[in-house]
Every structure is written in C-alpha cells, then in structure tokens.
Specification:
Blueprint (H helix, E strand, L loop, with lengths): L1 E5 L5 H4 E5 L10 E10 L1 H8 L17 E9 L11 E5 L9 E4 L1 E4 L6 H5 L2 H13 L7 E5 L4 H12 L3 E5 L5 H7 L1 E4 L5 H8 L6 E4 L6 H8 L5 E3 L3 H7 L2 E2 L6 H13 L6 E6 L3 H9 L6 E5 L1
Parallel strand pairs: 8-9, 8-11, 9-10, 11-12, 12-13, 14-15
Antiparallel strand pairs: 1-2, 3-4, 3-6, 3-15, 4-5, 5-7
Helix pairs in contact: 2-11, 4-5, 4-10, 7-8
The protein binds NADP nicotinamide-adenine-dinucleotide phosphate.
The site of NADP nicotinamide-adenine-dinucleotide phosphate has 31 residues, from helix 2, helix 4 and helix 5.
Length: 302
C-alpha cells in the first residue's frame, strides 16, 4: 500500500516520503479500513520531529497519523456491530493513519450528513474534546469558556458542549469570530484582558473552562474559573501539574465517537475542513499544521 513514512526524525520537507509499505491487518478487537482520508494533528508533526521521542517513540520507519475515515475492509476476531463495506471513522495508535489501509481500535459509523473527509477530521478531535468535557461534569445550563475554540479540538468542544446544553464562550483571533459564531460559541479574543472580556460576556461568571491550546494562559483561566477543579487542559501538562488542574489525554473511546456521530446526524456538529492535501503533499500539510493557525481540521486524502 502507499503510505507516508519518516525513516528518521526531522523537519517535514527532509524526512517525510510517500512509498510502498507492507499492509497492516486487523487483530482481535480491531478493524481495518481502506482509508479515504486521514487528519493531520499536532501530535503528528511533534512526533515526526522527534520532540516526543521520550513519550511516544517511533518504530522507524514510521507512518504518521492518529485518525482516519474510510470503508471497512477487514474485521478482527470478536468484533461485532460493523461489516465489511461500512463507512467508519476512528482512531488507531499514535502512528499509522496516513496510509491507504489503517487499523482502528475505536470507531463509529459515519453519519450520512458528513463526507469521509469531514469524518476523518472528527476522530481525535471528538475523543479529546469529549473526554475533556466529561471531566468538567454535567454542562446542562452551564457557561463554559473554551480557550483555543477555533482549532480542531476546540471547535469540536464548542459543538459538543453546546449540544450538551451549555452556553459556550470561545477564544480565537478576530478573523475567526464569525466561524465561532457559526458553530455555536460567543467569541472573544485571547490574551491580556481576557478576564474582563469574559466578565462582560458572562456577568455571573463561568462554570467551567477547557484549555484546548496550551498557550501558557492556564493561570489566567484558573483565575477566571475561580478554582482549578473547574478547569481542564488537553495541552499544558506542565502547568497543569503546577496548578492542580486536570490534564486530559485522548482515549480511544467508541462511546465518544458515537456521540460525535450522533451530533453529526442531528446537525449539531460538522467537522470544518480548513484544507485538504493529497497524500503526496503531506509535508505541506505538516508544515501548515505546525503554524498552529488552523480553523478546524487539516485532512490528507488517500
Ligand atoms: N491531550 C491529548 O490527548 C490531545 C489530543 C489532541 C490535541 N492535543 C493538543 O491540543 C492542542 C490543540 O490541538 P488542535 O488539534 O486543536 O490544534 P490546532 O487545530 O492546530 O489549533 C489551532 C488553533 O489554535 C488557536 N490558537 C493559537 N494560539 C492561540 C492562543 N494563544 N490562544 C487561543 N487560541 C490559539 C488558533 O487560533 P488563532 O489562529 O485564532 O490564533 C487555531 O485556530 C495541541 O497542543 C495538541 O497537541 C492534545
């Protein structure tokens, strides 16, 4: 099969190649898809660069990519509820998704409202956002502040929090405020003065805060929430430890993926594709992701 790989850690242009590689196969409890699209997440370029070698060591040569969508073409032992030919999206390991065939360990059926490219943008975003929102408790009737609301995780979190009954305030640069409104958030800018802007939008205060960017604002977010137990971060492990804030890691959770698909079917959540790149241009996609300015998701087509 064709796949993107890196044979050593380094910059996208220097180490990413597209080549023929052995096909993976579905083990017990797993399925394999003929992928139509895969998403590019920050972990892909961080892991490819070598920055995460101590946490997630690559078995070189390695295929980047955490999540994908496509058509099921192999079903592992013990798997029920899915058939060859079904369209699904989901998560595999830390690596392996930027390839024609991808093994998934958690998946959900693609709702009829999404293209496979949109579905490819949903897996890690939904698993991360949903897990973080779960940690914030029942959001019905609550006001939630999402820092970094326009990115892949943040935008999924806006839609999921709104669908769970919350009023959502989201931060992004001004050019993305119409986008935030379109997905159900009241927008504001991040940076100095955030507490005052949030107080003006939510005079009785916010009940919960999700840091979906890890820009260093966590102390301010704790002050805005009034307590570290009302705050979670998916992106600032270091400050989370210092401030007693919970750091949430994405889990390959089919329940969360199914929730994302249900919101998709109801029209409450549509993954926004910032840009698609063909597999041959994966280095461009990684370089784009590294800028950290994505609105929604970056997707590779296969
Ligand atoms: N814990 C986990 O398991 C897990 C899983 C997935 C992701 N993550 C981490 O979560 C973070 C977000 O991931 P992602 O996929 O959502 O990334 P992403 O899509 O690349 O995020 C880009 C967004 O970040 C916004 N942004 C940049 N600087 C900001 C700031 N100072 N304040 C507020 N927003 C800012 C940008 O908005 P503007 O252009 O308007 O600035 C852009 O919309 C990354 O650090 C990633 O590694 C963790």
């Amino acid at each position: 099969m064709r796949a993107a790989r890196f044979h050593k850690y380094g910059p996208a242009d220097e180490v990413l190649v597209v080549e023929d590689t052995p096909e993976p196969h579905a083990g017990p409890g797993e399925i394999r898809i003929r992928a139509a699209a895969a998403s590019v997440n920050p972990i892909d370029w961080k892991a490819r660069s070598g920055a995460l070698a101590g946490y997630f060591p690559a078995e070189l040569p390695e295929i980047p990519g955490r999540d994908a969508a496509g058509v099921v073409d192999e079903i592992g032992e013990g798997v029920t509820g899915v058939a060859v030919g079904d369209k699904v999206f989901g998560l595999g390991g830390i690596f392996g998704a930027s390839a024609e065939h991808v093994v998934l360990t958690a998946w959900a059926h693609v709702p009829g409202t999404w293209t496979l490219e949109q579905a490819a943008g949903a897996g890690l975003a939904v698993a991360t956002a949903g897990g973080a929102l779960n940690a914030l408790g029942d959001l019905t009737g609550k006001t939630v502040l999402i820092e970094g609301a326009a990115g892949g995780v943040g935008s999924a979190a806006v839609s999921m929090a709104a669908a769970r009954g919350a009023t959502v305030i989201g931060t992004a640069s001004e050019g993305k405020h119409d986008y935030l409104r379109s997905i159900g958030a009241v927008p504001t800018t991040y940076g100095p003065g955030l507490a005052d802007r949030v107080a003006a939008l939510a005079p009785t205060g916010v009940d919960a805060v999700l840091d979906a960017v890890g820009s260093g604002s966590l102390p301010d977010l704790v002050a805005i929430a009034g307590s570290p137990d009302r705050v979670v971060t998916v992106a600032d492990h270091l400050r989370a430890g210092e401030l007693n804030v919970r750091h949430i890691g994405a889990e390959n959770d089919p329940v969360l993926l199914a929730e994302g698909a249900t919101h998709g079917a109801n029209g409450a959540y549509t993954p926004h594709i910032a840009e698609t790149f063909p597999l041959d241009k994966i280095a461009d996609a990684h370089r784009y992701a590294e800028q950290g300015r994505t609105q929604g998701k970056i997707v590779i087509t296969l």
